Structure to design on (139 residues):
């Protein structure tokens, strides 16, 4: 099997689409009025599923955490420490919730955390070198 992408179950599809498209730069692959929206970032498929639509499709009810949650994170990489600061500032100015302001960690990575409109954690980090030169065992 190959990893094809990952998805989020969302309450407010329009708000989440606008955040991931307009604030974080994901590309929408289809009309945003559908119950399953396909976004792409750096050739990785990212799906947004309407919670009610998914429950109807699977004939089940699910439990959802309200507000900031720590079940997983989405990690985004930028090439320089300065880009971490700029991406954090832009995201917060455009509606992201600040979780951790940019800081240099003891292991050499500059990182910060924000949350999307439904409380999912997003890390923006850098090892201060291009992604292609990043050592994947570092983080």
């Amino acid at each position: 099997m190959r990893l094809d992408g990952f998805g989020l179950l969302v309450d407010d599809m329009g708000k989440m689409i606008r955040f991931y498209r307009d604030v974080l730069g994901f590309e929408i692959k289809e009309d945003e009025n559908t119950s399953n929206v396909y976004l792409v970032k750096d050739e990785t498929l990212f799906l947004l599923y309407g919670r009610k639509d998914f429950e109807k499709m699977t004939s089940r009810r699910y439990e959802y955490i309200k507000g900031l949650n720590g079940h997983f994170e989405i990690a985004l990489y930028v090439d320089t420490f300065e880009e971490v600061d700029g991406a954090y500032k832009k995201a917060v100015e455009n509606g992201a919730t600040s979780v951790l302001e940019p800081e240099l960690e003891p292991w050499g990575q500059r990182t910060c955390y924000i949350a999307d409109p439904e409380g999912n954690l997003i890390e923006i980090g850098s090892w201060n070198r291009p992604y292609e030169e990043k050592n994947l065992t570092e983080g």
Observations:
- Strands lie at 5-10, 27-28, 36-41, 44-50, 73-77, 97-104, 110-115, 121-126.
- The mean pLDDT is 91.
